[in-house]
Amino acid sequence: MKMIIAVVQDKDGTKLADALVKNEFRATKLASTGGFLKAGNTTFMIGVSDDQVERVMDIIKENCKSRNQLVAPVSPMGGNADAYVPYPVEVAVGGATVFVLPIETFQQF
Ligand code: 2BA
Predict the structure, then answer these.
(1) CATH topology of domain 2-102
(2) pLDDT tens track for 62-71
(3) Contact 5 CB / ligand 1 (< 6 Å)
(4) Cα 12 to ligand 1 centroid, rounded to whole Å
């Protein structure tokens, strides 16, 4: 068994959740925040058998698009000066960042 952890953009979250349900996969959707942009994103936890990993990867690819996002300058006032970005920069935010972890035990009570 594997745990697929997928960080996706909020804009794709509902579409991906619907596609997973339609294909009879079980998933947990968490509200998350990107460490770099400090903007909301969505993290899915999807527990699947080993032979289902590829199908879930395909569903994620089909439903999550890469987009460019402009990072506005962040004032260091009241914030961390180390994170200060003095000019707007465009970053490509991936369609999905996916981790596949082995699961030692799965139980439901
Ligand atoms: P954020 O951390 O908000 O990052 C958004 C995008 O900003 C990233 O897109 C990347 O293009 C850029 N970026 C991130 N850190 C950067 C840095 N130190 N310098 C320059 N540019 C940087 P993605 O790589 O597609 O990541 C999208 C989101 O996926 C991330 O949002 C984060 O929430 C998650 N993520 C990405 N890599 C991760 C990792 N290794 N571990 C945990 N979460 C990760």
Answers:
(1) Alpha-Beta Plaits (3.30.70)
(2) 999 999 988 8
(3) no
(4) 16
Residue 42: closest CA among 103, 100, 101, 94: 94
> Which residue type, as a one-letter code, is found at position 35?
G
Q: What is the mean pLDDT of residues 38-54?
A: 97
Give the Å distance between the CA of 35 and the centre of ligand 1: 7
Nearest CA to ligand 1 atom 28: 34
The DSSP bridge partners found for residue 5 are: 45, 99
Residue 2 contacts residue 98 (beta carbons within 8 Å): no
Residue to mutate (ligand 1; options 4, 44, 93; most atoms within 8 A of CB): 93
Q: What is the pLDDT of residues 17-29, one digit of tens each?
A: 999 999 999 999 9
Residue 89, both tokens: 């920069």
C-beta separation of 6 from 43 below 8 A: yes
Q: Decide: 69 in ligand 1 pocket, CB within 6 A.
A: no
pTM to 2 decimals? 0.88
